[in-house]
Fold each of these.
Amino acid sequence: MTVTQTTPEATGIGAIIEVETGAMAHGGHCVARHEGRVVFVRHAIPREQVRVVLTEAEPGARFWRGDVVEVLRGSEFRRIHQWKLADSLRAHASGRLPVGGAEFGHIVVHHQRRLKAQVFRDTVARIAGAALEPEVLRAGPEDEPTGQHWRTRNAFAVNPHGHIAMHAHRSAVLLPVRNMPLGVPALDALALWDWDLTGAARVDVATPADGSRPLVLVTPTPQTLADEARLGRLRSRVRQAANATETEISSGFAVPGPKRHSPARIERITGRTWVQESVDPERGAARTFRVTGDGFWQVHRHAPATLVDAVLEDADARPGQIVADLYAGAGLFSAFLADAVGEQGRVYSVEAARQASKDARRNLLSLPQAGVLNGPTDKVLGSWLKEPDRPASGGGLEGRALDTVVLDPPRAGAGRRVVERILALAPGRVVYVSCDPASFARDLAWLREGGYEVERSRVIDLYPDTHHLESVTLLRPAAEVATATR
Ligand SMILES: C[S@@+](CC[C@H](N)C(=O)[O-])C[C@H]1O[C@@H](n2cnc3c(N)ncnc32)[C@H](O)[C@@H]1O
């Protein structure tokens, strides 16, 4: 991208404008105004005077986007970005765009949390019309004050030279990566930057928080997949690199399915096709989990235990109760909820991804009160409403009412149909775990219209140095919340 000279009337991509930044908005940018138009400014902090290079600037567009390239009056909460590749100031100074994924790295961590709580409050007020005052929690007891070294899951592209790389933000440009400061130290130990991955398109790495054997999953390019000889050479190079590392590591190919969204087939190269994860929450006994391939697992090394504690506290599950764990992945919450309800109770672990449900079955094997239902949430809830007396052996509720619904949907949220079905099932508690305040707020509005009210809400900083946030919110029928808080 070329950066043009500053002029007062400068417009267009690459032009530089000067603005004063307003509030932090959902998405990680500050809202600013330039000649009456809204500009979303990344790498800023509210109430700064900055120069911004425009990165999206269609003349007729309602808003433009830009990155800070110079700070004229900085916030007291600004610090030097600790990852050169993601630092907007150094990136633009050397004529390139910053990589995405650490867009809050220039803000001291305690202020990042304050901004995330403000974004959560503002988003929920704007979309759901609810005034929430969330408690703000750190990801874990020994959080890094730098906001680094927490990611147990990392994904990289591979450039045409066979080196791991990352995309510049909102761009097809690939920048080679020599370190990943947000990754746990075990990621550095793999020295993936030195692997020759010619013929690969992407690498997904799982480095379990308990230090057990990592898994490096390589996705070959379509051209490599179509050529047995090329694929064989890539396989040999991966095997060689995996065997050359000091610690034992697993490796494999992720072979994309025939359709766009069909799951990848995992082909083992060294070790095994899964990782072990250990979770030791304060409110439950330690457990281990198996997660196959690039299956979903909470990314922050402390996230599983911290979320389990929050969910157990809000669900308050008692022996004999019936609990639905929706969007359950490999059964993380289901296992601890099943411990809480005991053998007289029942936990339904509902998950759409087939491999995740297979892992959940294995992870919940010692808990006969936990049943895994593989299928989309709306269908499972629909079948419960249609046939309330179906026996538990057939995935039914046996005519019993649900005491609690825990839901942890992907970024898109649960959606209207799922919310309506939860309302129709009328659980005593709804524990909503969310990684997106906007979709959460939309679903929350429907839950409130349906007669539920928020009893407690928490924002947990599971993604330091990024704008992302997690929230855990307990809802109960409005009349009960009013009584409890009176
Ligand atoms: C944010 S993850 C949560 C997983 C789990 N609660 C955990 O903490 O490990 C969301 C999960 O929802 C699953 N999922 C996505 N759409 C779904 C749907 N329509 N019905 C059921 N599960 C779905 C994904 O496969 C993923 O495992």
Amino acid sequence: MTTVEDRPLPAPEAELEYAAALERDAVQLRRIVDLLQRVDVDDPLLLDVAEELDALSEHLENPVETVTETIRNPGWRHDPVSGVENAIAPPIILESQPDGSVTAGVEFGLPYQGPNSFVHGGISAMVMDHVLSAATTPKDGPIFTAQLTVRYHRPLPLFVPLTVVARLKEREGRKIWATGEIVVDGKIAVSAEGLFIQPRPKAAR
Ligand SMILES: CCCCCCCCCCCCCCCC(=O)SCCNC(=O)CCNC(=O)[C@H](O)C(C)(C)COP(=O)(O)OP(=O)(O)OC[C@H]1O[C@@H](n2cnc3c(N)ncnc32)[C@H](O)[C@@H]1OP(=O)(O)O
């Protein structure tokens, strides 16, 4: 399988510039996704937009060798929740707090709607999974979600700033439990508990 890492790397200064450009590209893509939720379905412009998007995709596909099945070391700029270079990420920006907890601020728009005017429950679960695992992630390797229990206390509104908080609860060998909440207007809308496991080393499996 070919990966992004098999391509030659740009010079370090160019790499920074490309990373900034990729971040801006992701912002514009998110904007397009948002606008496509709002446009009138019978707007004739939609046909032109399809042509233009098609041309853009062609433009991107041509110079890129058809390689990218996986990204071996994606780093957090690529991930689907907080990845600023990944247009499908909201993105939510994580912050470590001095007490060891992890917090994040986020505001969801129309692309994340489930029930009318509220955030899709699967999106809330995704956010909880991510922020809880960030609160547990040991520095010495990957961690996998083994169990995630999500409780929906009240609907999570769109277009409102939300606060996400997560903290480590308990650790027993390779097993780590974490809890967290999504809070809106000072009230808990979603709470979650997760069990995260550091996988056995390959040789021991
Ligand atoms: C500001 C900060 C910036 C930080 C910087 C950003 C960081 C941003 C982080 C985001 C990070 C992305 C977070 C994505 C997180 C995913 O999305 S992970 C993907 C979803 N999860 C999976 O695919 C996991 C699939 N399952 C597996 O791979 C394996 O089952 C596991 C979970 C690795 C465990 O396998 P294993 O190591 O072989 O486990 P095993 O030795 O059999 O069991 C160990 C123990 O765990 C228990 N156990 C195992 N599985 C389970 C289970 N499912 N339920 C309950 N107990 C279990 C066993 O009973 C055993 O218990 P004990 O007998 O020791 O008491």
